[in-house]
Structure formats: structure tokens, C-alpha cells
Design goal:
This protein is of the alpha/beta class and 532 residues long. It contains 19 helices and 16 strands. It has helices at 5-24, 54-62, 70-79, 98-113, 130-143, 160-169, 178-187, 204-207, 213-224, 241-253, 289-299, 312-324, 338-350, 383-390, 412-419, 431-451, 453-471, 486-491, 503-519, and strands at residues 40-44, 67-69, 87-91, 123-126, 151-154, 173-176, 198-202, 231-236, 260-264, 277-283, 304-308, 329-332, 354-358, 373-376, 400-406, 425-426. The chain has a seven-stranded parallel sheet, with helices on both faces. The longest helix has 21 residues, at 431-451. The radius of gyration is 25 Å and the shape is elongated. The two termini are 35 Å apart. It binds adenosine-5'-triphosphate (ATP). Adenosine-5'-triphosphate is lined by residues 40, 65, 67-69, 72, 94-100, 237, 365, 367, 391, 395-396. GO terms for molecular function: ATP binding; hydrolase activity; RNA binding; RNA helicase activity. It comes from Hyalella azteca. Keywords: ATP-binding, Helicase, Hydrolase, Nucleotide-binding, RNA-binding.
């Protein structure tokens, strides 16, 4: 499709500004050098003031940013100073400041082009979860507080009509989740994006995985029809060869000759996670898992803790049991209503201590202030998910701890993670002390399940979900069903014995359930609500 006159003019204007900037750029040779402790380089925002429009610089100063992080420095060199407007694939560790690395150049782009509400949307940021979209939108709002343009947000769970109205009034940058973005691109007449220039895909490896790939294809197709040729900026802390193919299609489907640059900060570093993160594992037999979790949480009452659990049923069970002993926990999972999710997300964000029981919807991108420790009670799906989960702590140069529960039979996990550049150290459990101080209270929780029919049903459902998720785990040689003693597993769900006679029975049950899910009415009800 030929370029429109308007977009040509827009690109010409942009090139002029960029040329001017190139002349002004001074590389003092100190960029990218790590500074003392807080994860930033020695390069300051003051030293790049000339590359930034006054309203943007003013906002950056108000946000208290002084130094650039390495990823910011590398991305700005390409997007703020280069003559071309390249597409970028950037991989940098969790908490390294990727959000500002892409948002600052986008806001600067608006100033360079002097766009206004009538120009429509010039840039779109896609995020895999609603909370991540909200968080990114909040940072964007801060950055644009002195700009004349307005940002917008569209996400599952939001009021579609209000979002459409907001788009109609003109949002220069729109942050959103894929399903809702597609919805507006196809159905909202007031959504003007014929001068669209930049697409950001945050948590790119997640967004090109199964489950999102169809939506992403649809999104790219639709944006491709805008005909201008846009840059694509992909960011993540991890990469995956399985999804690389689809990801590279995003670069080339509508780039109209836009060059592609790769920034992979992992190559220069031996560890996949940040240095100030202490990572431990503990061996714990199946039947003792919840007992040990309870003891840990008792001892961590004064800390801010996130506990990753693989099913919402387990979350419901553990939350009820723990609160019966006055150990209050927040919980968040994909089946909660959006309002509930917002309330919990905001409350946990504000609190200085407390426990959040969560599923993997909280694994990626969440920037919660000062989480002290991440506990992976149930196993992560793969090394990438492990890296994102532990990345919720030790952010922005701060220190943090992470602990993963392993059954003794799962010891290979340690070597497996070492092969993925994650070093774990063993934490020993002093069993006699735990028994001495906590066994009595634990017995009270056991009694609660024994006596209460509702709790027993909850425990059975949680157990069933755990077994199903264990049996479908991708790393079979580590999470091996053959060495799973179902009765012992049942004990950590406060049950006397397993619901199934064998793992085979559990598999059968799983198949029936899945068939029902695939062909039942529920499967078609809310296609975009299920994952996020
Ligand atoms: N230049 C900077 N100076 C000080 N703090 C910064 C800077 N850049 C980012 N931060 C802070 O560091 C924290 C982590 O940033 P951000 O959320 O962008 O990380 P990320 O790389 O996107 O992490 P993830 O991969 O987990 O999504 C945030 O609290 C952010 O405000």
C-alpha cells in the first residue's frame, strides 16, 4: 500500500529533527558503565537534556530520575539520537528499567512530531496482563504530565464504552492488553491510527506464546493495514527460541525497510538474574510442604512476601487456613473480578509488609515496591517463568531473596537452573525447631479441615488441581509423576488420603475435565478473560 502524503510529511519532519539531534549528541564515553550500587550507569539524565523536549525533561526531573540504567542508555542511543528509527528487540534482566527505556522515546516522538489529539494514535504499547497495562499507563501518565498530548489505556475488564470515548477524543499513545486492543481496532470507529508509527510489545516472549499468538497475529495484521510502515520495539527479560519465529514476523510484517537492532544485555552477564538477588531452594517432602510454608510465613510476618501457587483452589484453601490463625494474606488470580484484582493490587502495592498468594498472573512485569522475598511454593512452568517470578524482588538495584520449594525427588531442578545461568543454594530446614514452635497451631488447621465439610471439599478441589497441574508439567524428567506419592501429597492439603487411587486415575479425570472444557459452553464464553 502506498504511503499517504501525511505520513510522508510526518516521517520527513521526524528525520529533520533526528538529524539535528545527531549533531548535538555528545558521547562522553562513560555511557553503559555500571555505577556504584543502584543498578544505574554513570550517565545522567542531565547529560541528555538536549535530546529531550522541555516538558518531558521536566517530568523526568519531577519523577526523581537522575541516572540512566544500562538498557535505557542503550535504547536511547538508538531511538533518541540515531538518524534511522529502528525496530528493536531488547532483552534485559527483570527490574532493569525497561519500561522507561521504551516510554521516554515514545513521549519524545510525540514532541518531535508535534502531534495533537487530531493526529490520533501514533504509538501502541501491548502488555500481556491488565495489571501490567495499568502500571505502564501510570508511568506514562507521569512522563506526560507536562505534555499537551494525552495517553490512553484499554484493557480487559475496563468499560469498553468509556475507552471508545477516550479514543475518540484522541490518545497519542495507547497502552492495552491484546484482546481489548483488537476489539477497539476492529470496532471503535473513533479510534484513529492511520498515522501509527510505533508498536511496543512488552514481555514479548510471553505475547508470542500459545494462547496469545492468534490475537497478536490479528493485531499485527490490522496495524499492518495502516500502511505507513511502523517500528516495532520488543522488550523482555527472557527469550524463547520456540516463539522467536512469530516474534520476528512482527518485525518484518510491516516494517517497510525499517532496520532492526538487537540489544541483548544477557550476553555480557553470566547470571540470568540480578546480582543482588539471593536465591535458595529447600528440600521438603510432599506431606510437609504446607507445614513448612506456614512456619516460614509465621517467621516472615514483618516482611513483604509473594507466594506463587499454581491454582486458585490452593490459594483459596491456604488463605482460609492461614487466616484462621490470624495470618492475613491477600490473594490474586485470573478468575477474580477486575474490581477485586484492582483493589488487591493497589492495597498490596501500598503496604509495607504482608503476604500475597498469587498465580502466574503476578509473575511478569509487576513493579511492586520493595518485596522482600519471593517464595515459589509450586513449581514454575519453565526457567523463563522462574526468572520472571523472582524478578518481582531485587528491582531497581535493591536487594531481595527468593526461595523455591522442591521435593527431594526434584533435586535435578538445581542443575537444570544452573544450566540456565541461575545459581541456587540449599537452605536447610531445622525440623525439631519447626515442630516445637509450630506443630500445635498446624494441628488446629488440620482440625478445621477434618471437621468442616466445606473446607474438606475445598481441600479436595485444591488437591485435584495440584495433581492436574503437576501431571501436565512440561519438564517431565524433574516433575516426574512416577515418584509422586499421592497420599503424601494429599497430606499437605490436610487430607487423610488421596482423592485418586493412582496417577492414571488422575490423568483420566484430567482428560474428561479437559474434554468438557473444550466442548462445553464455558469454553466460548469469555475468550480473553481466562488467562490474564
Ligand atoms: N533510571 C532509573 N533510576 C532509578 N530508578 C529507575 C530507573 N529506571 C527505572 N527505575 C525503577 O526501577 C524499577 C524497575 O523498573 P521497570 O519496571 O521498568 O523494570 P523492567 O525492566 O521492566 O522489569 P520486568 O522485566 O520485571 O518487567 C521501577 O520501580 C522503576 O521506577
Amino acid at each position: 500500500m502506498p504511503q499517504t502524503l501525511q505520513s510522508k510529511l510526518l516521517n520527513k519532519k521526524l528525520r529533520k529533527v533526528l538529524d539535528k539531534k545527531k549533531e548535538l549528541t555528545v558521547n562522553d564515553g562513560t555511557a553503559h558503565l555500571p555505577s556504584s550500587c543502584n543498578g544505574t550507569t554513570s550517565r545522567t539524565y542531565a547529560s541528555i537534556e538536549h535530546l529531550l523536549a522541555p516538558p518531558l525533561y521536566q517530568a523526568i526531573m519531577k519523577m526523581g530520575l537522575t541516572h540512566l540504567t544500562e538498557i535505557q542508555s542503550r535504547v536511547f542511543d538508538l531511538l533518541l539520537t540515531g538518524q534511522d528509527k529502528p525496530s528493536i528487540k531488547a532483552i534485559a534482566k527483570t527490574g532493569s528499567g525497561k519500561t522507561l527505556a521504551y516510554l521516554i522515546p515514545l513521549v519524545q516522538l510525540l514532541q518531535d512530531l508535534n502531534v495533537d489529539a487530531s493526529t490520533g494514535t501514533v504509538a501502541i504499547v501491548v502488555c500481556p496482563t491488565r495489571e501490567l497495562a495499568m502500571q505502564t499507563y501510570a508511568v506514562l501518565n507521569d512522563l506526560m504530565q507536562f505534555c499537551k498530548q494525552r495517553p490512553g489505556m484499554v484493557r480487559g475488564g475496563g468499560v469498553k464504552k468509556d475507552e471508545a470515548k477516550q479514543l475518540y477524543w484522541g490518545c497519542s499513545i495507547v497502552v492495552g492488553t491484546p484482546g481489548r486492543l483488537i476489539d477497539h481496532l476492529y470496532n471503535s470507529e473513533g479510534f484513529i491510527y492511520n498515522k501509527f508509527l510505533s508498536l511496543v510489545i512488552d514481555e514479548a516472549d510471553r505475547l508470542f506464546e500459545m494462547g496469545f499468538e492468534k490475537e497478536m497475529k490479528k493485531l499485527l495484521d490490522k496495524l499492518g493495514q495502516s500502511g505507513n510502515g511502523h517500528q516495532t520495539l520488543m522488550f523482555s527479560a527472557t527469550d524463547d527460541t520456540k516463539v522467536q519465529k512469530l516474534g520476528s514476523q512482527a518485525f518484518y510484517s510491516n516494517n517497510k525497510g525499517v532496520p532492526v537492532q538487537i540489544i541483548d544485555l544477557r550476553l555480557s552477564q553470566e547470571q540470568a538474574t540480578v546480582g543482588q538477588l539471593q536465591q535458595d531452594y529447600l528440600f521438603c517432602p510432599s506431606e510437609k510442604r504446607f507445614f513448612v510454608l506456614y512456619c516460614l510465613l509465621e517467621n516472615l510476618r514483618a516482611k513483604k512476601v509473594m507466594v506463587f501457587v499454581n491454582s486458585r483452589h490452593s490459594i483459596a484453601l491456604y488463605q482460609t487456613l492461614l487466616s484462621s490463625l490470624h495470618l492475613q494474606c491477600h490473594c490474586i488470580h485470573g478468575q477474580m473480578s477486575q474490581e477485586e484484582r484492582n483493589v488487591i493490587f493497589n492495597r498490596y502495592n501500598r503496604e509495607g509488609q504482608g503476604v500475597l498468594l498469587c498465580t502466574d498472573i503476578a509473575a511478569r512485569g509487576w513493579d511492586i515496591p520493595v518485596v522482600d522475598i519471593i517464595i515459589q511454593y509450586d513449581p514454575p512452568d519453565d526457567p523463563r517463568e522462574y526468572i520472571h517470578r523472582v524478578g518481582r524482588t531485587a528491582r531497581g538495584g535493591r536487594e531481595g531473596k527468593a526461595l523455591v520449594f522442591l521435593r527431594p525427588e526434584e533435586f535435578e531442578f538445581v542443575n537444570f537452573m544452573r544450566a540456565h545461568n541461575v545459581q541456587l543454594t540449599e537452605k536447610t530446614v531445622v525440623w525439631p525447631l519447626l515442630e516445637k514452635y509450630h506443630a500445635q497451631d498446624y494441628a488446629k488447621m488440620q482440625e478445621l479441615v477434618d471437621r468442616n465439610g466445606f473446607m474438606k471439599t475445598l481441600a479436595k478441589t485444591a488437591f485435584t488441581s495440584y495433581i492436574r497441574s503437576y501431571l501436565s508439567h512440561g519438564i517431565k524428567y524433574i516433575y516426574n509423576k512416577n515418584n509422586l506419592d499421592l497420599n503424601n501429597v494429599a497430606r499437605s492439603f490436610m487430607l487423610k488420603e488421596s482423592v485418586f487411587k493412582s496417577t492414571h486415575d488422575a490423568m483420566e479425570f484430567q482428560t474428561k475435565r479437559e474434554k468438557k472444557k473444550a466442548f462445553g459452553k464455558q469454553a466460548f464464553k469469555k475468550p480473553y478473560d481466562k488467562r490474564s
